[in-house]
Hints:
The chain has 119 residues and is an alpha+beta fold. The chain is built from 2 helices and 7 strands; from the N terminus they run βββααββββ.
Amino acid sequence: MPPRVRVTIYDRDVHEVREDVKAEGLRDLPVEERNVWVDVTGLGDKALLEALIGIFDLPWLAMEDVLQSPQRPKVDIYADHTLVITRMVQLTDAGELRTEQLAILFGPTFVLTVQEEPE
């Protein structure tokens, strides 16, 4: 199943949500003028990840950490970005605990969240 991408663009005057955005649809994000939150659920789309690296000027090392799962929780601070890797815990309908990696990358005007599973 391909990743799902939801984009929220906001500032004091604007709040816009875009659902099911594709890699080519990310290229026109107003990252210089507004705050942008890109929420990716599911991994495996190389074009999408390359687009995100280009748009937000992300270090390759940070994106490699995002893609490597599972990892221990950690925080990496780069010159213009911060990466947080953590685990989400969910209780299933069967009463079992399930964990999933969550990566949060943020910079001055953006937040990028990446979850392993598109659920």
